[in-house]
Amino acid sequence: MMKTIDVVAAIIEQNGKILLARRPESGDQAGLWEFPGGKVDGTESQPEALARELSEELAIHATVGVYVASHQREVSGRIIHLHAWHVAQFRGEMKALCHSELAWCLPAEAFDYDLAPADIPLLEAFMSLRDATLKGSC
Fold first, then answer.
1. In 10 A of CB 79, how many CB atoms?
2. pLDDT digits (tens, 9 = 90+) for 91-130
3. Residues 6+ apart with CB under 8 A from 6
4. Domain 3-136, what architecture?
5. Does 90 score more than 80 pLDDT?
6. CA-CA distance, 92 to 5, in Å (whole number)?
7. pTM for the whole thing?
8. Domain extents for the chain?
9. What separation in angstroms does the CA of 63 have from each of 48, 55, 60, 91?
C-alpha cells in the first residue's frame, strides 16, 4: 500500500494577484510552479503547518484564512493529499528560501505557467470560489 502524505498549500493573494513559487532544479517535479507549502507534521493542524511552512520557505508570518479545496494524486510512488488555504495577510519581507523563483500573477494567468499537476485543481477551485464570492458581494 502506498504511503499517504498530507500536504498544505497557500494561495497567497495580494492586490488581486496570487503567488506562484518555482520548485528548485533538484528534487521532485523540478522547475514546476506551485503554491508554496509543505507537509503536515505530527499533531499540527493544517493552518498551523501552513503558517510554519510559509515561515520556513518564504520568511513571512502568514495569517491563514479560509480553506479552499483538497486534491489527491500519486507523485513519486506516494499518495499526496494536498489541501489549499487562502492567505490574504502576512507580515515580513518575502524571500525565496526554498524555491528558485517567485512570481505574482492574476489567477487566470497562472495557467500560462508550467504548474505542478496537483496544483491545477486547487487553482480552479480557488477561481470558482472567488467568482462566487465576487458575485455574492453585489
1. 14
2. 999 999 999 999 999 999 999 999 999 899 999 999 998 7
3. 39, 40, 46, 81, 83
4. Alpha-Beta Complex (3.90)
5. yes
6. 29
7. 0.90
8. 3-136
9. 10, 11, 10, 9
